[in-house]
Design brief:
three-stranded mixed β-sheet; 2 helices; 2,3-Dihydroxybiphenyl 1,2-Dioxygenase, domain 1; monooxygenase activity; alpha/beta; Glyas_Bleomycin-R_OHBP_Dase; oxidoreductase; Ornithine monooxygenase; monooxygenase
């Protein structure tokens, strides 16, 4: 049985990377175990690790659930200067989603449940 999960992205400069992810996640890291490393617990038992190192281009995407994908896209384009990304949907899929990259080439994304009954982020 799985009890916890961590996902790691790498950035070339930890100070720059930590600041970018603080803005992306709207908060400071939950844990900085040592130099060159910062961690955010996104939901209980699910951690995003940002580590200094050579990024693995093309990995991911790591998708994060949000309540309003359009508002979050607008915020990220404005605050982090990411490229405007398309929000996709399909009738048979219960979410809308979109994908973008951080400045180091790590693929990230957002999703929003179409039906409020499905939403687990509220």
């Amino acid at each position: 049985m799985i009890g916890e999960m961590t996902v790691q992205v790498r950035v070339l400069d930890i100070k720059e990377g930590q600041q970018w992810y603080e803005t992306f996640l709207c908060r400071k890291p939950d844990f900085i175990p040592h130099q060159g490393f910062a961690e955010w617990e996104l939901i209980p038992g699910c951690w995003l690790q940002v580590a200094e190192g050579k990024p693995v281009v093309g990995s991911g995407p790591i998708r994060i659930g949000v309540l309003n994908i359009i508002a979050e896209r607008e915020r990220l384009v404005k605050e982090l200067n990411i490229e405007f990304f398309t929000i996709h949907s399909r009738e048979e899929v219960p979410v809308k989603w979109g994908t973008f990259t951080d400045p180091w080439g790590n693929r990230l994304g957002l999703f929003e449940y179409v039906s409020e009954g499905e939403n687990r982020t509220s």
